[in-house]
Every structure is written in C-alpha cells, then in structure tokens.
Amino acid sequence: MPIRTGAEYIEGLKARPRDVWVGGEKVGDVTAHPAFRRPVARLAGLFDLQSDKGSRDILTYPSPSSGASVATAFMPAHDSVDLEKKHAAYRAFAEATLGMMGRSQDFMNCTLLAFAEGAEVFARGGERFGENMVRYYEFVRENDLFLTHALMSPQNDRSKASSAQAEEDLHLGLVLESDEGIVVSGARMIATMGPVADEVLIYNIPGLPPEDRRHALVFAVPIDAPGLRQICREPYDRGDTNAADHPLAANFEEPDSLMIFDEVLVPWDRVFVYNDAKIANAIFPDTSLRSYTAHQTSVRGLVKLEFAVGVAMAVARAVRTDRFLHVQQMLGECVEAIEIVRACITRSEVHHEPTLAGSIRAEIAPLFMARTYLARTYPRVIEILQTIGAGGLLSMPSAADLEGPVGPEIERYYQGAEGMPGAARVALYKLAWDLCGEAFGMRQLQYERYYAADPVRNMAANYLNYDRSACDALVEKALALGRQA
Length: 485
Ligand SMILES: Cc1cc2nc3c(=O)[nH]c(=O)nc-3n(C[C@H](O)[C@H](O)[C@H](O)COP(=O)(O)OP(=O)(O)OC[C@H]3O[C@@H](n4cnc5c(N)ncnc54)[C@H](O)[C@@H]3O)c2cc1C
Description:
Structural class: alpha+beta
Number of helices: 17
Strand content: 5-15%
Mean pLDDT: 97
CATH architecture of the largest domain: Beta Barrel
Bound molecules: flavin-adenine dinucleotide
Strand order of the largest sheet: 2-1-10-11-7-6
Number of strands: 14
C-alpha cells in the first residue's frame, strides 16, 4: 500500500473509535468533534502533501519491499544527496505548519527507522524482539500510519522511582504475561497528537533504575486498544476560534493527552523490550534515535525560529522601533539564533557519520547543541517579541470591531508607520500575540523547552559527553609554559 491521502487517514480514524476525554465529554469519533476537527484536517493536509505533484519527489521514496511510494522520513540515507532529501522533506512539513506542529508524521517515522536499523539493541533481550521491531517498522511504513509516543511517567512523586510510587500501577508497567502477550497498566504523559493518532509507541527516556524492571517496556498498540484511555488538556481551539483574531491557534492546535493503560493486552509480536531496564536505557545511546530525531526537530525548529523572528522584525518595522539601537540589538540577537541553529544543522550534515546499519546519519554532536540551544533561544526570541511589541500587543481590537461601526476609527488610530493601514497592523499584532502571549503561544514555548525531555539534564549531558581533547591540549600547552620558566 502506498502513502495515504488525507481522506484515507480520516477514514482510518473513523474506523477506530477511541476512548478520548476532552472537556468532560467522551469522544469516540475524533473526526466529528470540534476540538479535533482542525488538527485532523491539518494532518490530512500533510498526508495529501505527500502525493502532491510539487512535493511528492521530496516527501516520498520507493519502498524497498513493495516499490510503492512511502514517506521519506523512513528512508535510510546512504550519501549526502539522501541527507539533503531528508532535510528537504522535514523542511516541507515544517513550512506547511510554520514549525508549530512538533509531532507531525515525520518525527515518529524517523524514530522507527532508528529502531529498525538498531534492531540489534532490541535483540539483546532475544532475537524475536529485534525481528518484531523490524516488522513493525515495515508495517507502519507500508501502511503510512500516524504514531504518537509517550515516554514519561506522570508527575506524581519525582523523587521516587516508578516502582516506589505511593500506589502500584500509577506508572505504566507490566501486570502479567501469558501465551498471547503482556498485560500492562498505569499512565504515561504527554502524548501529543495522541487523540488523532493511529497507534502509540511506548519507550522511555534513559535513566530507569534496575528496580524499575517492570516498567522497562517498549511496545506498540493501536490507539483503540481495549483499556487505553486518553484524557486531554483543555483545547485552545474548539473548532470555532476566529482565524482573524487567533490565526495560529485556529490553525495549528496539537492536542496533548495523558494516556491511561488499564490492563491493556500487548500481543507478543508488538513487544520490543520486555522487563529489561538495561536494554530500555540503551535505546537512546545505542541506536541512531538521537541523531534522526534531532535532525528532524532541528530543521523544524529552525523554521519556527525563522517565523518567530520574522514576526518580531515585522512588529518593529510596523511602528519603526527598528530605528532604535537597542531594538536593533535585540533583533540582531534573534538573527544570530537563526544562523547558529542553521550552522549546527549544516555542520551535522557535512560531517555525517556512519551508522552500524551501514547507512549514514547527520552528526549527533552539533544537532544536540542545536537542540539544547533551541530550548533556550526560542523562549528568548519570544521574550524579545513581547518586549518589542510592548503594550501594542494588548491594545488590539477584535476582527468584529474592524467590521463594525468603529472600523474607520481603527483604520485611523491603529495605523502604523509609513502608511501601514490600521487593519494590517491589527492583523500583524494579533498574530504576534497569538505567538507570544496567548495560551497557544505559551504551549509552543513550553513545548520547545521540554519536548526533548528535561533541558537541565540535556545541557549537563552536553558537558558529560563532550570530547574535551582539544580544550585539554590547549590547557596542557599553557601549563607547559609555566614549567619551562
Ligand atoms: C507541550 C509538550 C508536548 C510534549 N509532547 C510529548 C510527546 O508527544 N511525547 C513524549 O514522550 N513527550 C512529550 N513531551 C515531553 C514530556 O512529556 C515531558 O514534559 C518532558 O520529558 C519533561 O518531563 P516533565 O515535564 O515530567 O518534567 P520533570 O522531569 O518532572 O521535571 C520538572 C522539573 O524538575 C526537575 N527534575 C525532575 N526530576 C529530576 C531529577 N530526577 N533530577 C534532576 N532534576 C529533576 C527538572 O530539571 C525540571 O526543572 C512534551 C512536553 C510538552 C511540554
């Protein structure tokens, strides 16, 4: 089966009513619910892009098993041309969503590629687990399924291991095993796009202690698996948000959920790691997961940064605050951020490195710098946008006012510099506030800080994993000067 169309994705959702709760209501068919209508339509648009004449050569490649067109994010790279194609595919999805949809299809597709190429890691628990992983990758690739994932246990008592929480089965873990498979119970967070996904893949951030063996599971189940429930955060768009007032929230909502597994059966062929903290912890360092996902997220993050900086520059130009030195300095800082992230991506692609599977991947080290830097610099760009926009961001009328009796006064009193019409300035500032002030924008900010796990520990890892040899050699050289005296 080749790549799916948006309509086929929607049909697939309808065919799998799921146990999703939002705003006090149980939703089965998410395609018919106002809170999910727009996210579903946006994702359907991305599916359609894969078969669009203008983008299909970038977004697809021929499947090695069926010859049909499948998504590029599943493609192993063998040379720089392949890496460029993957970059272009990530960029195409990011541009279609202004970088606002962190969990577009390509994120989990490249995750599965890393897992299939790293099947040896899963096979450490027994050959069949490695084989299961490769089969699952092929299954998702050939059916163009949309996956969500949930790596973290919920925030109950972070000072204790999952096995030491106040109640058993608070955190997702094994309940029992049988000939059919394993049965799991407990919760996981955050599953972005969970309500509108086809499947969920469960794995974990490294750091599981040995006593959490029962929680050391990697597996996948369909999103409608009996016993799997999702509780969503309050949506920012309930399908009726006016795009003229909230252009981003009305277009790029990504539902987030907490997943509760209540004795969910996972058939053995969907189990990839079973009760083994050592293997579960090895998935990040021993497969290409970090490189593949950081490549996708850096390209996506760069587009988002370019967009946010574009908004900041436009806001400053609108009222000519860009003539002031300190505003120019802040905008210069924003431009610096874009170019640093771009440089990290370019370096990672030029200095690509071999994988154990015989393919190549973008170099991990600079991608990791981009990842931790983006977690700091995106909030800083948003702070700069708030600072430059200042009170103007809070003085904008609604679209309804523009069309009403006060419309002519808005045109007059809200006009910008150099003849910028009032309506155009209102539209720009409302876009800016959606990005830097509204709940939608604050989620976007929090997403960049936390989507790749705790930024504090990620930054510490930059130090702990750094190849210090060049720095040490220089220090040694300087110390030798003292010894010569
Ligand atoms: C909007 C959004 C969407 C997301 N989407 C997804 C998704 O689709 N799938 C997914 O798997 N993940 C997703 N994540 C990431 C994930 O859910 C977590 O938010 C992330 O891994 C950070 O964990 P936490 O939020 O539980 O923070 P915590 O780990 O609880 O950390 C909170 C604070 O306490 C400190 N802290 C906590 N524990 C320790 C410790 N042991 N040692 C030192 N410091 C500690 C941290 O430094 C931090 O400052 C998403 C996150 C956000 C914000």
